[in-house]
């Protein structure tokens, strides 16, 4: 049996819910649904609880969202309108137009990090949808993730054809880049809110993640090759020296045995 829990209403300061206009009521239900889904998951939230928290009847919820699919789609549409996730910001579009690789990735990273910081509720909601294998997860993939891979991948492919980027599968580059951003946001929003592991601004994170993507972590290829050769030589010398010491030790042991048998 499902345990009852206290539902906190979200009527808004000074708002007369009974007199809310249709559009305002629509957004009210949507905001409440997102909050409850992010807190309790999709399986743990009923339309009755959404109605109670929004201060409306359950029938009113269904009047605005005839099916759950409509509600889920409206959540994603709301986020798309607020955050413009597909083309994050004008800075990215301008950078793409002038083919400024650093500006493209840095602006995209900063925009995403800022949105994640401002809306951790949506991150939790997405995690619930993935863990519960909820349909919203696939809806999010189709509306956002797939299109990000496609748009950024197209840019990378064009730059590869022009010889500006190495020939690595674009989807791998996108995943590496997005992975840095998402992991950083998840740490800050969910696991390490005190930022004990890494406490840097979003601007610094965007800049350094872009540095890693475009330049890697090796200072210089010739320096790296020289360092590798030196390390290999040192290992070989250590191995040779160890072998000689082992052989010398074995000779000494055999000599002692011979003397003791005389």
Molecular structure report:
It is a single chain. This protein has 262 residues and is mainly alpha-helical. 73% of the residues lie in helices and 0% in strands. It folds into 3 domains: 1-66, Orthogonal Bundle (Arc Repressor Mutant, subunit A); 84-215, Tetracycline Repressor, domain 2; 221-262. The chain has helices at 22-40, 47-54, 58-64, 68-83, 90-97, 101-118, 120-131, 135-161, 170-191, 202-215, 221-261. The longest helix has 41 residues, at 221-261. It starts with 21 loop residues before the first helix and ends with a helix. Mean pLDDT is 80; it is low at 12-18.
In short:
With about 260 residues, the protein is mostly helical. About 75% of the residues lie in helices and about 0% in strands.
Secondary structure: number of strands: 0
Overall radius of gyration: 29 Å
Residues in helices, as a percent range: over 70%
* Topology as a string of helices (H) and strands (E): HHHHHHHHHHH
CATH T-level topology of the largest domain: Tetracycline Repressor, domain 2
Q: Number of DSSP helices?
A: 11
Task: Determine the mean pLDDT.
Answer: 80
Count of domain modules: 3
* Overall spatial form: elongated
End-to-end C-alpha gap: 88 Å
Q: Please tell me the CATH architecture of the largest domain by its name.
A: Orthogonal Bundle
Our estimate of the beta-strand percent is: under 5%
What is the C-level CATH assignment of the largest domain?
Mainly Alpha
Largest sheet: none
Unreliable segments of 5+ consecutive residues: 12-18
């Amino acid at each position: 049996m499902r345990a009852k829990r206290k539902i906190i209403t979200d009527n808004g300061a000074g708002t007369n819910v009974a007199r809310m206009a249709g559009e305002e009521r629509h957004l009210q239900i949507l905001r409440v649904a997102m909050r409850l889904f992010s807190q309790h998951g999709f399986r743990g939230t009923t339309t009755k609880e959404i109605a109670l928290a929004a201060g409306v009847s359950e029938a009113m919820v269904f009047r605005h969202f005839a099916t759950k699919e409509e509600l889920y789609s409206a959540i994603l549409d709301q986020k798309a309108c607020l955050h413009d996730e597909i083309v994050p910001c004008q800075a990215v579009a301008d950078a793409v137009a002038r083919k400024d690789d650093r500006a493209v990735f840095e602006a995209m990273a900063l925009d995403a990090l800022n949105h994640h910081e401002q809306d951790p509720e949506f991150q939790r909601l997405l995690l619930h949808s993935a863990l519960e294998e909820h349909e919203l997860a696939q809806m999010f993939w189709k509306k956002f993730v797939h299109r990000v891979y496609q748009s950024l991948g197209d840019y990378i492919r064009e730059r590869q054809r022009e010889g500006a980027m190495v020939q690595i599968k674009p989807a791998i580059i996108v995943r590496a880049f997005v992975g840095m951003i998402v992991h950083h946001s998840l740490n800050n929003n969910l696991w390490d809110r005190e930022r004990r592991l890494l406490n840097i601004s979003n601007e610094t994170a965007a800049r350094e993640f872009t540095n890693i993507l475009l330049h890697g972590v090796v200072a210089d290829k010739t320096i790296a090759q020289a360092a590798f050769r030196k390390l290999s030589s040192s290992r070989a010398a250590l191995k040779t020296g160890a072998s000689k010491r082992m052989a010398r030790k074995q000779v000494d042991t055999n000599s002692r045995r011979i003397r003791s048998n005389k």
